[in-house]
Amino acid sequence: MFFRFLFKPKDFETTLDGTIRLRRLGPGDAGIFRDHIHALHFTDFRDRFNGLASDHWLDRYIVRSLLDATCIGAFSGDDLVAVAELHSGSHLAAGEAESAFSVASDWRRKGLGKLLVKALLKAATEAGISTIIIETGPQNHAMKALARRFGAKMRFGGDQSVGRINVAEGLRIAGRRKPPPPLAVAAAGLGGGSGGEHGGGLADGLGDRPAVPQTAV
Length: 217
Fold this sequence. Notes:
The protein is of the alpha+beta class and about 220 residues long. It is built from seven helices and seven strands, in the order αβαααβββαβαββα.
């Protein structure tokens, strides 16, 4: 795991009018990741985790995600305002990964979702992932529209809408639009990020399976 954070893939090119900086998150960012999640408004938190989550469960989820998944943070100054996650595992077919997004409530509908999808597409290519799975609640129309923008066909299953983005097709669609000017991205340090604590609401019983179904954009 040490080498995973020593050798990072290259920068992300996307930015929002020069105000947003993207970088990969590492284990040292657990505190700011937790603070970001707990700053979400109630409905955004619920959409992200398909309900509530206990403090203990959320602590474990954050640690596991930062160790085992690709997590990309969007920063406005020193503030973490959005996170995109890409999770693979034995419960998925080869070449597939599940995505999850959380955007600070005051930053929603300002283009951060599109920015993070592009970054995840690039990260997926570097990781040999060909399909990104997006799951969201049926009420999250913004996320469903964003997924469709990159070629996903959303289908309703159970209490969730599920779509798949073909990574090559998503990159082709992203490339058709004029890219914003490049922004140098700071590399995540081995102990980078701020310190901090963790917290949540009420959902144990999810076991050790990565909980990445829901997303709030």
